[in-house]
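User: I've been trying to design a sequence by hand for this structure and keep getting stuck. Would you show me what you'd pick, starting by listing the structure so we're on the same page?

Assistant: Good idea, let's start from the same input. This is the structure you sent:
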């Protein structure tokens, strides 16, 4: 490590933003395992059954070489059917998938219009691609339309790509998808919807908030498999031509070793469980109601402002047996450091109520 690295780390420490890896501790209010599937006996049994029928742990190469396994193709066919899209493409994770989409599909002369709070992976994908981009205020559909119209007036002739999350990962609020879909129709734009935190939990059969839009030629969705689905990897749902273009031109797909075939087999089981998880989703809704957060979703931020307050509050709650992590800039905007409370089936209704009371208590202490 060079002295420049050391100085950078010291600067982060002074600002209260130095990150470190810590073990799991206390009751789970930090994971994205919303349906409690990650350590479930059902997924463990599915993985064991796949191993028993000879599914390999490793792919051994990229999908375009020998890494393409029947489990990948079976998962993609089942996912397309489940979500209602023409085709699916399985990648190693949500970050890789977003980077693959936005570095590949929008081309030179196109415009990517993305929400101010979009996932960092989208930003990195746009930076690696050839399209121009513009950021619009959070959840402001009118600003999205204005940005496209202004671009056209300046001579923009390509395709506009609208990039949003259906449920925002740090704020827990929902995108105005119906309005955005109407804007995309009016401007013959592409609408790319990241369903990472909605998949498995929201929409019919847990198919996400974009379930009514899946299958449209101008809609692309991303469903991660390592959150509510409890496994890993990510699925890009799109028209066949777009999928084929990614297979031929997307560097994050072409040059990466394929995801584990065993993982693909496990995700197949996750999707089957998701179809029948209405009781689990109802149980989760009861926990969300018990917390009483402003978002009404399973992602419930508690914004406290400064980095120090967020860190102190998280530490105090940890001492009381709750695993809640502080989220600080640059992950969230300056002045909006927070606790990101993730509500899952790994805790009980009483656990949730106890956490809400503990947060109120500790905030009172911090204010004193």
């Amino acid at each position: 490590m060079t002295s420049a690295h050391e100085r950078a780390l010291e600067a982060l420490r002074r600002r209260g933003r130095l990150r470190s890896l810590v073990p799991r501790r206390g009751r789970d209010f930090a994971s994205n395992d919303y349906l409690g599937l990650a350590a479930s006996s059902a997924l463990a049994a599915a993985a064991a059954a796949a191993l028993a029928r000879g599914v390999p742990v490793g792919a051994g190469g990229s999908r375009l070489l020998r890494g393409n396994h029947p489990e990948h193709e079976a998962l993609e066919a089942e996912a397309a059917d489940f979500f209602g899209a023409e085709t699916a493409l399985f990648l190693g994770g949500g970050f890789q998938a977003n980077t693959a989409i936005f570095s590949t599909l929008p081309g030179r002369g196109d415009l990517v219009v993305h929400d101010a709070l979009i996932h960092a992976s989208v930003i990195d994908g746009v930076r690696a691609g050839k399209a121009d981009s513009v950021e619009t205020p959070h959840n402001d559909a009118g600003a999205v339309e204005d940005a496209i119209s202004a671009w056209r007036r300046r001579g923009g002739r390509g395709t506009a790509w609208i990039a949003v999350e259906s449920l925002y990962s740090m704020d827990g609020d929902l995108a105005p998808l119906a309005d955005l879909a109407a804007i995309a129709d009016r401007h013959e734009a592409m609408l790319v919807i990241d369903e990472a935190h909605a998949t498995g939990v929201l929409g019919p059969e847990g198919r996400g908030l974009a379930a009514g839009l899946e299958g449209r030629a101008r809609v692309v969705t991303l469903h991660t498999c390592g959150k509510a689905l409890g496994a890993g990897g990510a699925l890009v749902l799109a028209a066949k031509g777009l999928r084929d273009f990614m297979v031929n031109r997307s560097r994050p797909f072409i040059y990466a070793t394929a995801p584990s075939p065993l993982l693909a087999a496990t995700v197949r089981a996750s999707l089957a469980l998701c179809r029948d998880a209405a009781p689990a989703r109802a149980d989760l809704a009861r926990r969300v109601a018990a917390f009483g957060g402003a978002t009404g979703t399973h992602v419930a931020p508690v914004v406290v402002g400064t980095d120090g307050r967020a860190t102190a509050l998280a530490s105090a709650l940890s001492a009381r047996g709750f695993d809640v992590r502080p989220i600080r800039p640059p992950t969230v905007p300056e002045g909006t450091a927070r606790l990101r409370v993730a509500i899952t089936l790994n805790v009980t209704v009483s656990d949730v109520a106890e956490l809400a009371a503990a947060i109120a208590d500790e905030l009172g202490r911090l204010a004193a």
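That's my pick for every position. To get oriented when you compare it with your attempt: The chain has two domains: 25-39+278-367, 55-275. Residues 25-39+278-367 form a domain with the Aspartate Aminotransferase, domain 1 fold (CATH 3.90.1150.10).
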